[in-house]
Specification:
10 helices; about 260 residues; Methyltransf_11; SAM-dependent_MTases_sf; S-adenosylmethionine-dependent methyltransferase activity; 9 strands; alpha/beta; Rossmann fold
Amino acid sequence: MQDFRNLDRQEWHRRYLEQVRWTAHLRQYIFDKISLDPNDSILEVGSGTGAILQSLLDEGYHNTIGIDLDCSSVVFSKNQHQNFSQIIGDGHHLPFVSGKFAVSLCHFLLMWTPHPEQVLNEMQRVTHSGGWVLVLAEPDYQARIDFPPPLDLLGAFQTESLQAHGIDPCIGRKLRSLFIQTGLIKIETGILGAEWHHSAQMTIDPTEWTMLRADLEGHLSPNELSRFLQQDEQARKMGTRVLFIPTFYAFGQVP
């Protein structure tokens, strides 16, 4: 289950919306690759506040349902969106008959789960033969690149904090192995691209720092975090800031 720490669901929703924007081109690539039809039945595991479900609806996919373990996130989603279905449940034990869906997918989920292999096995079970299991994004914080110094310390501190919360910071690199273990076929894996241009260098993603503050609360003092933020702002103004967290994707077909 996701650790929400001291953030409310609105703050998490803003972060999820930003993550949805990051993976928009990847989703289109994968959907084209698997010839996803607008009428195909789609399950999102770990649907949270409904950010991905809403994007699917906006993209013309109407036969969708989400499931999430956190009741407050599902209630938030239902209050925000009235156009898709979402239920409370555990991805380790999906309450659906075998072979029900054409596609099951998740998005920044497995890093939070105690047994990602069990979640993938369940996603495969509820997807019919010839259907697809998609993991749209899982980060690898242990391979994070921060430049210039001392911003490299920021990534190290965040990774330590995530591990202390029981989160797997290097789940991304494990995706291909997990898919092979699950028995999926026609597996494709990769990493989301990264580009740095002037306008992006000048912009600080407020959701990134909201997450950092939540991750590092109790690990760094507010003054230490403020100094890192000032150094980040200065590096962006100079055009020297590099922040790259390798984010992996994987998809495979159910035999």
